[in-house]
Design goal:
Elements (H helix, E strand, L loop, with lengths): L1 H8 L6 E4 L1 H19 L5 E6 L3 H8 L7 E6 L1 E2 L10 E2 L2 H6 L4 E9 L3 H11 L5 E9 L12 E5 L5 E2 L15 E3 L5
Parallel strand pairs: 2-3, 2-6, 6-7, 7-8
Antiparallel strand pairs: 1-10, 4-5, 9-10
Helix pairs in contact: 2-3
The chain binds inosinic acid (IMP) and magnesium ion (MG).
Length: about 180
């Protein structure tokens, strides 16, 4: 864990491209096509999990051709920089909004599955018409809790990724591509 940081601090390298802008665009178009087919006339509540999903969400919704509502949720978490949050907390107001709605959660990456399994469980208790999950990336080899991802753009190996909204210590969110920062990757 320490090595990532050491390499970055030393400015040894810029994140290597794992998934190009072009590739991201293509897979988002495909996802949007499926989502449009499934949610036409359902006026879903599209819930982005901040901060990591903001660029993915912005690009995805511009490909969706039907009425929808957008909200964002912020989860407070405890945990070190490159680890998943151990405890997550969701704002009560948003959790009440899901009542009687088709909810589509937009997340940046599913790692251990802890964050999303908690969130889905919390929403399911609020009487939604449906709850589905859309993620930019998933690392299945890291899963501790099973989570069903209804719409997934990329399945990736166990590497720490940055860019296109994802950060390491709040850096790299503005990269237009998905990169890896560990020189060994
Ligand atoms: P989970 O609860 O383990 O699924 O945690 C998912 C969260 O951990 C994501 O929303 C990210 O904030 C963070 N995370 C996990 N893997 C990565 C990664 O490779 N890059 C950046 N953030 C990550
Ligand atoms: Mg996140």
């Amino acid at each position: 864990m320490l090595n990532y940081y050491t390499y970055i601090m030393a400015g040894i390298q810029k994140p290597r491209v794992l998934i190009s802008e072009q590739n991201i665009k293509k897979n988002i178009k495909d996802l949007a096509h499926k989502i449009t087919h499934d949610y036409q006339d359902k006026n879903p509540l599209i819930l982005g999990v901040l901060k990591g999903s903001f660029i993915f969400m912005a690009d995805l919704i511009r490909e969706l051709d039907f009425d929808l509502q957008i909200e964002f949720i912020r989860l407070s978490s405890y945990g070190s920089l490159m680890e998943s949050p151990g405890v997550v907390n969701c704002d009560e107001d948003i959790s009440d909004l899901v009542n009687g709605r088709h909810v589509l959660i937009i997340e940046d990456i599913i790692d251990t599955g802890t964050t999303l399994s908690f969130l889905i469980e919390q929403f399911q208790a609020k009487n939604p018409l449906s709850v589905r999950l859309c993620a930019l990336a998933s690392k299945p080899s890291r899963r501790l809790i099973k989570v069903e991802i209804d719409y997934l753009a990329f399945e990736i190996p166990d590497k720490f990724i940055v860019g296109y909204g994802l950060d390491h210590d709040e850096k790299y969110r503005n990269l237009p591509y998905i990169g890896v920062i560990d020189p060994k990757d």
